[in-house]
Amino acid sequence: MVPSLLFEVMLIGLLGIGSQWIAWRYRMPAIVVMSITGLLAGPILGVLNPEEDFGSLYSPIISVAVAIILFEGSLNLSFKELRGLGKPVFRISTVGAFIAWILGSLTAHYVAGLSWAVAFVIGGLFIVTGPTVIMPLLRQSKLNPRPAKILKWEGIIVDPIGALLAVFAFEIISFITADDPDGTKLFLFFAASLFAILFGWACGRGIGWMFETGHIPEFLKSPAVVIVVILCFTGADEIMHETGLLSVTAMGITLANMGISSISDMRHFKENISILLISTIFIMLTASLQLETLLQIFSPNIIGYVILMMFIVRPLSIFLSTIGTKLSFNEKALVGWIAPRGIVALTVSGYFAEVLQEAGYEDAGILTTLTFGLVFFTVLAHGFSIGWLAKKLNLSMEGKPGTLIVGANKFTMELGKSLQKAGLPVIIVDSSWERLRQVREAGLNFYHGNMLSEQTEYNLDTIPYEYLLAATDDRAYNSLICTTFMPEYGRTNVFKVSPFVEGKNTNAEIVSKVGGRILFDKQFSMDDLNDKLNNRYIFRQTTLTAQYNYKQYVADKDPSTVFLYLIKPSGQLKFYSEEMRTVPTVGDTIVSLTPPNKEKAKIQAKLETKRNNNGN
């Protein structure tokens, strides 16, 4: 029985999201898992062949998906991110792209054996990296902000430029080889490119203005943006092929820099769609490949071409284009190595393979094989090496899980000190210099500012911190913090102190249900925790053993003890909460806030009284 198209759509989605889950569960590069899954389902096992089964719908589906993915990526390109990075990003996106085009074209001609015409077309296309491959890598590997931002900006900006370079090279070749050269097509190319940028800017400004003036209701904002993105892409692409990518990029950057208050909600929605599209499109593209194409990539000329592109062309273009910038050697080395090719390279090369063959260039028949070879090997090499290389070059934020604490007070300061003592990164954020004074004196990392302000969003690097604790005296503010940052940190990594305060619980039930897990236990409010410290409660670490297990540990504790967090032998950190499901086991270290030894407390109290009397 031949499966229906509906079944195939379901299977593609299931394989795509399943690949993402496997990658997350076993800490593998998602693009590698998706590529291998697609190859297994398509040319190897013959379960899927989306290009054949979808027919004429295949190309439009891929094109629209790429447009939405590219728009979602460009929606994150705020110019404020470029502080101190504008020069290297500009140089890599212009000078670096040109060098990569020339060197890549020479390599395609002399090593892959392509004619000059086909070599220059494909050389322009292969400068792309793109958000479809860069974003999953950045999501998986915790790079330092500088190289991460450079790779993100390059991937999104150069994506449409690469496609346009291929079109430009084709138009130049057509002009030079024509019996009766006519410059009209070249003029139309530049005019269409300019129109695409202006059209994208107009779409961005238009939809942004409608958002700001309330002409679009809240529930229609995200659907409206999706439709306008498709309109923006199609409108430009109908005039000249591949200019649609430039148009949606311009639209996304325009919206990202308009300062629209609802842009963050839209960004989260678009990110979710983007992940779904990347997952399914990778499966569709790799499953549509022919087995012959898969076998051809192991031919010597293609392998030689891929090796030179990875080890010579890419590093050389980055090092030459960043001369005179403030990038360190390690940053140049990392950026010079990471350049996986993805969906745009595969889709556009298929288009040009057909166009060039129709124009009489028979050697264009190997473009699909050549492109897939570059995509497959770069995805594998860069996907598995980015984390390792970043650590070797000291450009990785990977390490022990960090904690960002919002609210400076006695308890959060002591909690921060205990986390720091355990070797875990911690930072305390507060808008009051007075409240931060003791934090500074204790030698803890801190940030002065409102956690919800736009300035904090751009200036505070949150990458090293896996957990967020809202621990201010304002219960509603704590809930608002958790609600705001839940999409970024994840539902299980955002906590707030208990909103329940004796005699003041009018709105506590409502506040407790808004965003974030309740830290420790709902009976311990911020006041209770600070009071315990004032009563000389102390932070105590206990490591469980086979002789002293968790059950014995709990039985020995005073009822007023607050269980704070535990650290597993692997370094994993877990905060206690009402929803905590993990049962501590042998080897785990538990940190708790416990009553002091009474004799020691009396001696300490006498010493403090004596010091106070001497001071008077």
List keywords for this structure.
616 residues; alpha/beta; 6-stranded parallel sheet; 4-stranded antiparallel sheet; 25 helices; 10 strands; 7% strand; elongated; Cation/H_exchanger_TM; transport; RCK_N; transmembrane helix
Could you characterize the architecture of this molecule?
With 616 residues, this protein is an alpha/beta fold. Helices cover 62% and strands 7% of the residues. The strands form 2 sheets. It has a 6-stranded parallel sheet. A 4-stranded antiparallel sheet has the order 7-10-8-9, with helices on one face. Helix 9 packs antiparallel against helix 10.
Layout of helices and strands:
Blueprint: H1 5-25, H2 30-44, H3 50-54, H4 58-74, H5 86-110, H6 116-125, H7 131-140, H8 145-177, H9 184-212, H10 221-239, H11 243-256, H12 263-287, H13 291-296, H14 300-321, H15 329-337, H16 343-358, H17 367-392, E1 402-406, H18 410-421, E2 426-430, H19 433-441, E3 445-448, H20 454-459, E4 465-470, H21 475-489, E5 494-496, H22 508-512, E6 517-518, H23 526-534, E7 538-543, H24 550-556, E8 562-567, E9 573-575, E10 589-594, H25 598-615
Parallel strand pairs: 1-2, 1-4, 2-3, 4-5, 5-6
Antiparallel strand pairs: 7-10, 8-9, 8-10
